[in-house]
Amino acid sequence: MESVNRITRRLMLVVLMLVVSGMMFLSSPAIAATITTVNRDNFEAEVLKSDKPVVVILADDTGSLNNELVSKAEKSFGDKYKIVVGEIRENVQAYSRAIVPLIYPAPPAAVIFKNGNVPTPGFAFNINDPTGSFEGIKKRFEDSQA
């Protein structure tokens, strides 16, 4: 009987550990973030025809546009904005609205589109600490809409 109790307790601990582990993954913003990647084929549908303002985040390669960066953008912009990412070479037209002229090596940049237009200039940002830049462009964009 003692061994049955011990096995039952161990099974309960395993189940509890699985439940807690699963909850950690579900609540993590890095895991919860969804990344929409834009390119020549879907730019019009994802950005120009969107009902929400769209924050387009561009870098030399999408490898640097990870879940953590998107989570920081989602925290800064909230659910009133759609966040998309893409490679600069696939979205040169959008990038040129953020950074003029196009320079090499190209820094990561973001620009906000609304109804297919860019009401305020985009910006380059530090990919390791983008929050201040995200907050700045959001304020500039919202001030232009007032």
Protein described:
- The chain has 146 residues and is α/β, with parallel strands linked by helices.
- It contains six helices and five strands.
- The protein has helices at residues 2-27, 29-32, 43-48, 67-77, 92-98, 131-145; strands at residues 36-38, 54-59, 82-87, 109-113, 123-124.
- A five-stranded mixed β-sheet has the order 1-3-2-4-5, sandwiched between helices.
- Helix 4 (67-77) runs parallel beside helix 6.
- The longest helix is centred in the first third of the chain and has 26 residues, at 2-27.
- The protein starts with a helix and ends with a helix.
Overall pLDDT metric: 82
Structural class: alpha/beta
Which overall shape is indicated by the principal axes computed on the Cα atoms?
elongated
Q: Classify the beta-strand content into a percent band.
A: 15-25%
Count of discrete alpha- or pi-helical segments spanning 4 or more residues: 6
- Which sheet architecture does the biggest sheet show? 5 strands, mixed
Topology as a string of helices (H) and strands (E): HHEHEHEHEEH
Helix content: 40-55%
Adjacency order of strands in the biggest sheet: 1-3-2-4-5
Low-pLDDT runs: 25-33
Describe this protein with a few key phrases:
single chain, about 150 residues, alpha/beta, five-stranded mixed beta sheet, 6 helices, about 45% helix, about 15% strand
Summarize it.
This protein is α/β, with parallel strands linked by helices and 146 residues long. It contains six helices and five strands; from the N terminus they run ααβαβαβαββα.
